[in-house]
Amino acid sequence: MSEPFYITTAISYPNGRPHIGHAYEAIAADAIARFRRMQGRDVFFLTGTDEHGLKMAQTARERGIEPAALADEMSSYFREMDEKLNISFDRFIRTTEPAHHKASQAIWQAMVDSGDIYLGRYEGWYSVRDEAYYAEDELVTAETGEKLSPQGTEVQWTVEESWFFRLSAYQDRLLAYYAANPDFIRPESRRNEVLRFVEGGLADLSISRTSFDWGVKVPGSPDHVMYVWVDALTNYLTGIGYPDDGGRFGRFWPADVHIIGKDIIRFHAVYWPAFLMSAGLALPKQVFGHGFLLHRGEKMSKSLGNVVDPNDLVAAFGVDQLRYFLLREVTFGQDGSYSAEAIVAKVNADLANSFGNLAQRTLSFIAKNCDGKLIDGYEATDGDRRLLGEVRDACSVQFARHMEALELSAAIETWLRAVFACNQYIDAQAPWTLRKTDPERMSAVLAVLYEAIGNLAIAIQPIIPGSADRLLDLMGVPRDERTYEAIRSGEWYRKVASSDFRLAAPTPIFPKLELPAEA
Ligand code: ME8
């Protein structure tokens, strides 16, 4: 059986509709999941919605509906967005599912059993927006004199009986774990941020609430619901069957990587490992905090009116166009900016003009001038071998190395350099001239290009799955040959060429984009 690979996104708060930041995270995680599947790994990809907590309860109250009704409605928009973006999740989890309540109570009980939970009284600051507690010295003062969270959100003084988690007892164990596992938190900037925070000392964490009841009930303490982050983080266990399904849970835990945004790194890299240590469970291998997506360099906010619905971007530019832009433009781990102009410019330059044009002119030439027939054997020149070697190396070895390191934009750049090399080759070889002067050489050049384009399409599948599939279907590349292994072995071209496959006249896979009028 192949090696498991368990990847998760954060689960989103469905207190509003999904925005481009949610889309970005889903797309990045999907590219990694697809890449690992192509490597032959047995992938489990989890995503979903985080439906408890005060923020959900308050939004529902403002809208005059029950929190459950709000969650049902909004969660469906997240799922629809995922489907539209071609996100290949294996499970879409909702934290209101009974199985999740059971899992959260199980991990709670395990923490009780290790003596890490005690009853106390919480007096301090809470931000509903962030669903987070803050210490006095973490707060910032606004120009108006109002106290705000370090994220700039409103905080309220809260006094409540509460169950506490003995987080303070985990400082040394966490620091030792970070030191022994330098790749646990990535990128480096996030790791440093977490180290500084933990080195500064950890206070015990309030992990239950009594002032509202929209949450998972604390076992044996019916007046308390769990602090939303305790149940939210546990989704990563529920998703693979904890506590019952020994089979799947045993196979996929610990997770290979949690893909999350930089604003929630503390929950994933401090609280979560401490909860798991307390419950006697293994720790995830990696937590990756990606950057934030800005609109024209500005933070998205309802008041600025620049919160963009991902569905509109898909309608305007296309799914793969959006996926490509986000993964190529934003260095994974850093903040990035987007605008309609930037999407149009990047997609036209890279997909329409470089890759699309390469495929279109080669394939339509073969369809038109060779009856769609490919030649099986030919005499390769040094230049032919050089190009094929370069493309093969870029598409299998280098692309894969970058993807494994979660350097998504670097992987795409490598691929694009190979596309450029093909375009130089086609211009230098000029098959349209050879057609008259040396038809045999023309056929060889087309065979080289066909294999190169096929390899480029195979490699880029995780990034632009729909378009790559269409191109590979058109080119007759067998489904089971669409892997990095197939690129390396170089067998697929001969199989296609020696079969009775005939290439049909292609329509462009990447039509040139126009800037929408209202942009
Ligand atoms: O934080 N750019 O939910 P959420 C990029 N429920 N990513 C962004 C972003 C932006 N502009 N805005 C948000 C939560 N995100 C919790 C998670 S996990 C056990 C619980 C990212 O809906 C954000 O960083 O506020 C997070 O990873 C994800 O979107 C969901 O954010």
Quick summary:
By secondary structure, the protein is an alpha/beta fold. Helices cover 51% and strands 14% of the residues.
Mean pLDDT: 96
- Widest β-sheet, arrangement of strands: 3-2-1-14-15-9
CATH superfamily of the domain at 340-497: Isoleucyl-tRNA Synthetase, Domain 1
Largest sheet, in brief, is:
6 strands, parallel
Structural class: alpha/beta
What is the level 1 CATH name of the domain at 340-497? Mainly Alpha
Bound molecules: ligand ME8
Tally of helical runs: 19
Query: Radius of gyration over alpha carbons?
Result: 26 Å
C-alpha termini separation? 50 Å
Strand % is 5-15%
Domain Methionyl-tRNA synthetase anticodon-binding: 379-479
Function: Is required not only for elongation of protein synthesis but also for the initiation of all mRNA translation through initiator tRNA(fMet) aminoacylation.
Family: Belongs to the class-I aminoacyl-tRNA synthetase family. MetG type 2B subfamily.
EC number: 6.1.1.10
Explain how this protein is built.
The protein has 519 residues and is α/β, with parallel strands linked by helices. The chain has a domain at 340-497: Isoleucyl-tRNA Synthetase, Domain 1, CATH 1.10.730. The protein has 19 helices and 17 strands. It has helices at residues 20-38, 54-63, 67-84, 98-113, 171-180, 188-199, 228-238, 246-252, 265-279, 310-317, 319-329, 340-369, 382-404, 408-429, 431-437, 439-459, 465-474, 484-489, 492-498, and strands at residues 4-9, 42-49, 91-94, 117-127, 132-134, 140-141, 147-148, 156-165, 185-186, 205-206, 208-209, 217-218, 221-226, 257-261, 287-290, 293-295, 336-338. It has a 6-stranded parallel beta sheet, with helices on both faces. A hairpin with a 5-residue loop joins strand 6 and strand 7. It is elongated, with a radius of gyration of 26 Å. It binds ligand ME8. Residues 10-13, 21-22, 24-25, 50, 232-233, 235, 260-261, 263-264, 292-293, 300 line the site of ligand ME8. This is Methionine--tRNA ligase. Is required not only for elongation of protein synthesis but also for the initiation of all mRNA translation through initiator tRNA(fMet) aminoacylation. It is found in: Cytoplasm.
